[in-house]
């Protein structure tokens, strides 16, 4: 199939409005030079694309690339959770929509915009340049009108303020939903172990807060909290009580997992997974209708709580980015500026992604950097400011809700009292190497398992798969106290710096000292509890490594941040305790005696856990700058930036040496999303003529002529092909390029003309010229469609190197460009052709580039 799409206009304005600026001189081809009489006139007439284009532009709440879907090419009806953008579309489910009165004259669509023209189909790519051009036209008109009246001035001010108001609403809604998810997940996780007699709505911690019979050492044990064995058999002692609690734990886990996968399967299939690979693809310009709709938001919010509470090895941080983007997309419908422009909407979604990370980790600055580094395709300076504001409001809202009851944004805020030493960079780098190895191993094995799920019968039974994995996880997790608790609580305990009053087994040291400095304890020999905890943590590490491979990618909401951090935190804590004991028993070694004397507090195992968490998360996602900022915001460890940086960079280098793709890019490729990665270089010496369609011995390129085809001819071409657009030439003999017209716009315009203009029949001539010749008497009226013609499609010559073509597609966000030779049209290169060529050059299957 050919992915043809909207053309590109090379405007005289600064190129900062484009996804990434690129010299407009590349657009000057021999074809356009020989057709200045049509190109210049057309450009003057339609101010970028066509007069009043911003009034006619409409769109659905969607996001993705060009697809050939046989049998559905003529169906542009909208889904229930993606409401129409203008009232006139509701009049009919077909393309015309209504709104233009009947007329006996020749229809000139330059004067009366048609509802639906300029919008995009599902699984199509937006045209960044056209969208930015329309936004400039809209802004220019508002600015000019603001000088005419006070009301117009007020409208101009409100238009400028609407972006900030939208960011405020996104931050408030995202923060509120995140708080609700945190509180609900905490309560339902504790529900697996028992209930509070003071009120079933209290979780374990809050239940014991209200108790008068609890000590600091046993603050998690109070008579008001009853385990299931106490409720069922009135005792918490003995083997039978253990079996009852074991059974109820597994039963609740299976119930939560079953409800989660069932709701996703029945009501919102798009609510599964992390959502970040799809968000990246959407932000690159692809359209997936319903992926950011209200049903997806509702089901993802509910099932995320259920999935986290089931005890599966997954997190809520990635899905919270999806939830925040759903909030942003839905709220865009309240503002015409964002509702009617897909490029502007993607700016909002970039800010929403930042707000999602802000509430997921309590890291507003890290959220902005995450959106910039990891997910956004187009991130102008204005979006940076608004992302910062949205992340700020979201974090403030979450802090006001205080879901963790500790007056902080995150569950595992810690403060370390001991500075790190230069020698410790060696174990920190070792943790970075471990993180890189773990990341590469996880990506390869998880992608292999997900591919097996797609290509075998396993993928047909998502409910069974989820229940089996949940049962295995719960059965193996209950006997070990470090796998029984939620992963967030585990990380919090691993990050913790042991104090005198800590009752955890990880802090069961032998106290062989008399005094210590305020706020710190000297290194001490490990007690029995520490050694027991080390064995349990080693088993926990093995379980987390294995089970996460099979969990991520199932048909439930599943994030990867927390499981990856847990793997790294466990490895880091194990190494940290080892280094601590080594320094205690061998403080006279050369590597220790210069900075670690006997009785001093030299090693902080919690810091090693934090560095290990950053290393493993970096190895899986390949984040660097945003990862370090998130980690120090997450823990408050501002003075530990250098260890975090060393571990993050080491893990990225090691992981990149074993595989270039992060987990999200790997899933994008696995699913066949048409995403053109901007970070990779194209180093092959091929030419445009090697990639363009048609190839040698292929049928000739399907084209339209500017003044010699009837309505019936055009409708026949539309019905017999599945192309997304057609070049328009002067004649089939000359093949001189005039412009490019989209398939969707043709269908809508012809159908609208048949209904609204008397006399238009199958034999009516279609004109794409500026002036149509006089119509002889007793002949059907002509149809003028010049307004839907792009008079400045992007063109390259057949000898243009493909590295330049790929760069153009990346930096301008093109859907397609036309290939000419001495001004004559030769072929077309679509975004999918570019992706298939890159895959072919990398010895990959080019047919995998197809939305699946």
Automatic annotation (TrEMBL):
It catalyses: 2 chloride(in) + H(+)(out) = 2 chloride(out) + H(+)(in). One of its GO terms (molecular function) is antiporter activity. Proton-coupled chloride transporter. Functions as antiport system and exchanges chloride ions against protons. Important for normal acidification of the endosome lumen. May play an important role in renal tubular function. The CLC channel family contains both chloride channels and proton-coupled anion transporters that exchange chloride or another anion for protons. The absence of conserved gating glutamate residues is typical for family members that function as channels. Interacts with NEDD4 and NEDD4L. SMART domains: CBS (SM00116). GO terms for cellular component: early endosome; endosome membrane; Golgi membrane; plasma membrane; synaptic vesicle. The chain crosses the membrane at residues 161-181, 239-261, 348-372, 422-443, 463-480, 533-553, 560-579, 607-632. It is a multi-pass membrane protein. Residues 692-756, 788-848 form the CBS domain. This is Chloride channel protein. It comes from Bos mutus (wild yak). Coiled coil: none annotated. It is found in: Cell membrane; Endosome membrane; Golgi apparatus membrane; Membrane. PROSITE patterns: CBS (PS51371). Keywords: Antiport, ATP-binding, CBS domain, Cell membrane, Chloride, Endosome, Golgi apparatus, Ion transport, Membrane, Nucleotide-binding, Repeat, Transmembrane, Transmembrane helix, Transport, Ubl conjugation. CDD domains: CBS_pair_voltage-gated_CLC_euk_bac, ClC_3_like. Belongs to the chloride channel (TC 2.A.49) family. ClC-5/CLCN5 subfamily.
């Amino acid at each position: 199939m050919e992915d043809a799409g909207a053309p590109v206009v090379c405007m005289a304005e600064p190129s900062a409005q484009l996804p990434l600026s690129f010299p407009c001189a590349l657009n000057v081809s021999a074809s356009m030079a020989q057709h200045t009489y049509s190109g210049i006139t057309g450009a003057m007439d339609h101010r970028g694309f066509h007069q009043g284009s911003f009034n006619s532009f409409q769109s659905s709440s969607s996001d993705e690339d060009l697809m050939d879907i046989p049998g559905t090419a003529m169906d542009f009806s909208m889904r229930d959770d993606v409401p129409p953008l203008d009232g006139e579309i509701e009049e009919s489910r077909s393309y015309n929509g209504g709104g233009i009165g009947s007329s006996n004259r020749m229809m000139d669509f330059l004067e009366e915009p048609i509802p639906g023209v300029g919008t995009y189909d599902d699984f199509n790519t937006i045209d960044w340049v056209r969208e930015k051009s329309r936004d400039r036209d809209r802004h220019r008109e508002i600015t000019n009108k603001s000088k005419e009246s006070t009301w117009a001035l007020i409208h101009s001010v409100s238009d400028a303020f609407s972006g900030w108001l939208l960011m405020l609403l996104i931050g408030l809604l995202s923060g509120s939903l995140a708080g609700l998810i945190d509180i609900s997940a905490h309560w339902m996780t504790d529900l697996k172990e028992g209930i509070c007699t003071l009120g079933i709505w209290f979780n374990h911690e809050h239940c014991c807060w209200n108790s008068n019979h609890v000590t600091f050492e046993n603050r998690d044990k109070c008579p008001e909290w009853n385990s299931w064995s106490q409720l069922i058999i009135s005792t918490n002692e003995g083997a039978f009580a253990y079996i009852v609690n074991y059974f109820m734990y597994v039963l609740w886990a299976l119930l939560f997992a079953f409800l989660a996968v069932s709701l996703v399967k029945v009501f919102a299939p798009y609510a599964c997974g992390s959502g970040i690979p799809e968000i990246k693809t959407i932000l690159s310009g692809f359209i997936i209708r319903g992926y950011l709709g209200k049903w997806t938001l509702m089901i993802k919010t509910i099932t995320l709580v259920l999935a986290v509470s089931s005890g599966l090895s997954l997190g809520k941080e990635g899905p919270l980015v999806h939830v925040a983007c759903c909030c942003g997309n839905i709220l865009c419908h309240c503002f015409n500026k964002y509702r009617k422009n897909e490029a502007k909407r993607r700016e909002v979604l970039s800010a929403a992604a930042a707000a999602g990370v802000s509430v997921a980790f309590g890291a507003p600055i890290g959220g902005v950097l995450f959106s910039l580094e990891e997910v956004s395709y187009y991130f102008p300076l204005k979006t940076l400011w608004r992302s910062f504001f949205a992340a700020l409001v979201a974090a403030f809202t979450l802090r006001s809700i205080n879901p963790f009851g500790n007056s902080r944004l995150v569950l595992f805020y810690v403060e370390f009292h001991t500075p790190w030493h230069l020698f410790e960079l060696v174990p920190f780098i070792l943790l970075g190497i471990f993180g890189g190895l773990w990341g590469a191993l996880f990506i390869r094995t998880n992608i292999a398992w997900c591919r097996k799920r797609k290509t075998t019968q396993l993928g047909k039974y998502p409910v069974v798969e989820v229940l089996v994995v949940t049962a295995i996880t719960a059965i193996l997790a209950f006997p070990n106290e470090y796998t029984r608790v939620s992963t967030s609580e585990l990380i919090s305990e691993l990050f913790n710096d042991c104090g005198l009053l800590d009752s955890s087994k990880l802090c069961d040291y032998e106290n062989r000292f008399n005094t210590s400095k305020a706020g710190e304890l000297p290194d001490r020999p490990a007690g029995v509890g520490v050694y027991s905890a080390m064995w349990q943590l080693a088993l926990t590490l093995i379980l987390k490594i294995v089970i996460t491979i099979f969990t991520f990618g199932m048909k439930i909401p599943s994030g990867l941040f927390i499981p990856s951090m847990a793997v790294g935190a466990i490895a880091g804590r194990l190494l940290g305790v080892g280094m601590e004991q080594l320094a205690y028993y061998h403080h006279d070694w050369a590597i220790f005696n210069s900075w670690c004397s006997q009785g001093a507090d030299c090693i902080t195992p919690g810091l090693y856990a934090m560095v290990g968490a950053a290393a493993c998360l970096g190895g899986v996602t390949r984040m660097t700058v945003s990862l370090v900022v998130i980690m120090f915001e997450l823990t408050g460890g501002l003075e530990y930036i250098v260890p975090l940086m060393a571990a993050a960079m080491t893990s990225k280098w090691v992981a990149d040496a074993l595989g270039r793709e992060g987990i999200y890019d790997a899933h994008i490729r696995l699913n066949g999303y048409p995403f053109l990665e901007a970070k990779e270089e194209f180093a092959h010496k091929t030419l445009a003529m090697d990639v363009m369609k048609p190839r040698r011995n292929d049928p000739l390129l399907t084209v339209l002529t500017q003044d010699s085809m009837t309505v019936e001819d055009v409708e026949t071409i539309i019905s017999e092909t599945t192309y997304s657009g057609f070049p328009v030439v002067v004649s089939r003999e000359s093949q001189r390029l005039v412009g490019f017209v989209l398939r969707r716009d043709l269908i809508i315009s012809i159908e609208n003309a048949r209904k609204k203009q008397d006399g238009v029949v199958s034999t009516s001539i279609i004109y794409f010229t500026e002036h149509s010749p006089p119509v002889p008497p007793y002949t059907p009226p002509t149809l003028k469609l010049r307004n839907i013609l792009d008079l400045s499609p992007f063109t390259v010559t057949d000898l243009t190197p493909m590295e330049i073509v790929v760069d153009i597609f990346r930096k301008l966000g093109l859907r397609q460009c036309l290939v000419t030779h001495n001004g004559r049209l030769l072929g077309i290169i679509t975004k999918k052709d570019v992706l298939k060529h890159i895959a072919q050059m990398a010895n990959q299957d080019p047919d995998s580039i197809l939305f699946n």
